[in-house]
Amino acid sequence: MRVVVVDSDMLTGKLLKFALGDAGEQAVICNHPEEAIDQALGNGTNVVLVNLDFDGGRGLAMCKYLRSRSYFGPLLVWGERRREELLQAYEFGIDDFIIEPFDPREAIARIRAVARRYERFDTRRMGVLRVGPAELSVGKLTFRVGDGPEIRLSPIETRILEVLMRNRDVILSLETLHRNVWDDDDDAGANRVQVYVMRLRRKIEPDPNKPTLIHTIRGLGYVFRNPIKAVDAMHHLHIQSGDSHAPY
């Protein structure tokens, strides 16, 4: 693999470069923003690894910029584990968070695990999945409802939607979603799923605060429903609630 390491600290960068090289991978160390952008967005990059402290603490801003420039490959960050930064990292589309201090062997194992997940995604049957008027194109990484515009998704967002849509009308726990998408036992997995679902709702729901596609079932998890049937069900429930003979 070609791994781009974005880091202002020459010592840590050199350590990672040595460890990756020793493990048979190619590492490119970038110490400046322009160089990091150029290297990450071209040259057959497989994975990008960013230090949160890069460029005076602007590591997350770099990640956000790379995603905005259509870098949809594996993206990892490392730094101290502060809850707000961890959640914000996932908000920006990060695949994994490596906590300092770390063993270089752990970093390599995590990099390879994320890369394998992307490889499995790339080799999946790239078809179109439909639930009512909702349509997910796995191969194109796009989603649309009816005649609406195509919405561009990241591979992780696409995978979450795919799992939900293939199990439409079935409530999936946060743990089940995390296991199917990330295939690991990270103790922050539930938070990661919640952050990504919030991102998805902002992208695909007309009103993220009143979702018609991805529904929260309090205490249980999430469920994807046919948006037309969901509206009909709510209408039916509303009629029942006004009936004096209703059982509750």
Quick synopsis:
With 248 residues, the chain is an alpha/beta fold.
Walk me through this protein's architecture.
Helix content is 46%, strand content 19%. The protein folds into two domains: 2-122, 3-Layer(aba) Sandwich (Rossmann fold), CATH 3.40.50; 128-240, Winged helix-like DNA-binding domain superfamily/Winged helix DNA-binding domain (Arc Repressor Mutant, subunit A, Orthogonal Bundle), CATH 1.10.10.10. By secondary structure, it is of the alpha/beta class. Strands 2-1-3-4-5 form a five-stranded parallel beta sheet, sandwiched between helices. Strands 6-7-8-9 form a four-stranded antiparallel beta sheet, covered by helices on one side. Strands 10-11 form a two-stranded antiparallel ribbon. The longest helix has 19 residues, at 104-122. The protein has ten helices and eleven strands. Strand 8 and strand 9 form a beta hairpin.
